[in-house]
Amino acid sequence: MIRKVLLLFIVCLAGYRLEARVVETAHVEDIVPFIDEDTWFLVDLDNCMFQGAQALGHANWFYDEIQQRTQKGMSQQDAIRDFYPTWSNIQKICRVKPVEEAFISVLHQIEARGITIMGLTHRQPSIADSTIRQVGSLGFDFQRTAPSKRYV
Question: Are residues 71 and 31 in the same domain?
């Protein structure tokens, strides 16, 4: 199954103009030629950088649980509110693996060039510690090239 990786590059140009380029590819290494010293590399976490190493805790498990609840008549907001505590607790123990084998090594290549790399997620702040642990378990730390060392 080919997974598409959607990566966003923001390039700051002279005069404080911003230019954005979206590159969609099946392989993360395909984006390396597009990156220069002015690039900020933004990485979606769930199902892009990593996925649950097992079904329990996988993002697809979350979506399936929400769908089951909405099919039983719950609103999507109520379904999320109902299931999120379980999701949050499972993330504390959930192991992850890269979606693509080369993903972490490509991030290290980009990082070695001093490129700003940031992770993006729709996860709630309440599971930030679990998310940071999961990223760290892959051998990566977004703080190394973060534009600010403070995070919320």
Answer: no
